[in-house]
């Protein structure tokens, strides 16, 4: 495993609660690593800032700091996670069965984030203004999100490294730190709703096909994902997880859900969807048309892993991003 340089330090937010507000600030450099339109993900807006404010969750938030020659601390990397109770593995120990792993929610990032915070709420660890589900998958997850048992699993949510520091191996250090934190807390597994880093280059390719690609990334070679050698997976972020011992579980078909008006999407992407539909209809595919002549178009946007859907009549668009569930054993 890479070693932190002497001018860098790693801490959890319960140890450095003084920097949480800076991490959540809009001017924080790592914020630029995510699409600006993630602002339209209501689940993230409601719950992400709470990760550093709930003590039982803050101890699983990771930050890497580097001290400049002038003595200033710069945030150069971070890792967000959420501990949660997973009833299906509660009696199975660390050697969970494949069919049990597949009970991870199709709602991926958004659902597991809401589950972890809502379970903390059910245990009396935090007060929430609203506990209403935001997505359909979260509605299905209500019985589990109301469980009060101690968490038994850790889910990674994000790993972000400042681009000019990526040569330091910080992503690997953060993932291994997540595993160690989970072990110390006697959790059973680390799971990750992975956002493949090169999928945005192929937004119209089904993610179920994309994850089967192998280097040099032409056609699927292996029918069974578990047969893909870690060194041959096409996507670099998936490849890194596999090299660190992760295994494919399934696609999280509705992992990140972004909803916004045409005006908001223009602010986020610079694209006027109405003009786009009129002038470039050859790349906006009509997907549905009801009896009232409602038109829904698919439009690809920069950094999107899949096309979004624009409802011309309602002047709203929604983006539903698929991710990939990866599971890491905590056995050494």
Descriptive labels:
alpha+beta; ten-stranded mixed sheet; 10 strands; 332 residues
Low-confidence stretches: 282-291
Sketch the topology as an H/E string, one letter per element: EHHHEEHHHHEHEHHEHHEEEE
Q: Cα-atom Rg, whole angstroms?
A: 20 Å
Q: Give the mean pLDDT.
A: 90
Separation of termini? 14 Å
Helices, strands, pairings?
Elements: E1 8-12, H1 20-24, H2 42-47, H3 55-58, E2 62-67, E3 73-84, H4 98-101, H5 108-122, H6 136-140, H7 142-145, E4 153-161, H8 170-184, E5 189-194, H9 207-210, H10 236-243, E6 246-261, H11 262-269, H12 273-279, E7 285-289, E8 295-299, E9 308-311, E10 316-329
Summarize this structure briefly:
The chain has 12 helices and 10 strands.
Describe the structure.
The protein is an alpha+beta fold. Helices cover 26% and strands 25% of the residues. The protein has helices at 20-24, 42-47, 55-58, 98-101, 108-122, 136-140, 142-145, 170-184, 207-210, 236-243, 262-269, 273-279; strands at 8-12, 62-67, 73-84, 153-161, 189-194, 246-261, 285-289, 295-299, 308-311, 316-329. Strands 1, 2, 3, 4, 5, 6, 7, 8, 9 and 10 form a ten-stranded mixed beta sheet that branches. The protein is globular. The model is unreliable at 282-291 (pLDDT under 50).
């Amino acid at each position: 495993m890479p070693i932190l340089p002497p001018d860098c330090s790693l801490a959890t937010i319960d140890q450095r609660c003084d920097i949480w507000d800076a991490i959540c600030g809009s001017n924080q450099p790592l914020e630029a690593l995510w699409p600006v339109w993630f602002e339209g993900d209501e689940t993230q807006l409601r719950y992400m800032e709470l990760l550093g404010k709930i003590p039982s969750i803050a101890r699983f938030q990771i930050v890497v700091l580097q001290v400049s020659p002038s003595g200033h601390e710069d945030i150069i990397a971070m890792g967000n996670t959420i501990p949660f109770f997973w009833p299906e593995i509660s009696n199975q120990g660390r050697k969970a069965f494949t069919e049990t792993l597949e009970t991870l929610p199709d709602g991926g990032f958004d659902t597991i984030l809401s589950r972890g915070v809502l379970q903390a709420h059910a245990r009396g660890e935090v007060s929430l203004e609203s506990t209403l589900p935001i997505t359909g998958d979260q509605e299905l997850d209500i019985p589990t999100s109301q469980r009060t048992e101690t968490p038994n699993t850790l889910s990674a949510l994000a790993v972000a490294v400042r681009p000019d520091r990526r040569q330091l191996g910080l992503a690997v250090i953060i993932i291994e730190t997540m595993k160690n934190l989970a072990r110390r807390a006697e959790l059973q597994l680390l799971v990750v709703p992975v956002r493949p880093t090169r999928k945005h280059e192929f937004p119209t390719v089904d993610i179920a096909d994309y994850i089967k690609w192998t280097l040099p990334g032409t056609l699927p070679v292996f029918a069974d994902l578990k047969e893909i050698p870690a060194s041959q997976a096409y996507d670099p972020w998936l490849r890194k997880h596999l090299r660190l011992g992760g295994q494919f579980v399934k696609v999280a078909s509705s992992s990140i859900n972004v909803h916004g008006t045409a005006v908001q999407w223009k602010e986020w992407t610079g694209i006027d969807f109405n003009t786009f539909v009129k002038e470039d209809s050859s790349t906006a595919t009509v997907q549905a048309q009801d009896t009232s002549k409602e038109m829904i178009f698919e439009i690809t946007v920069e950094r999107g892993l899949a096309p979004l859907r624009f409802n011309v009549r309602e002047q709203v668009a929604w983006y539903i991003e698929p991710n990939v569930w990866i599971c890491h054993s905590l056995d050494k």
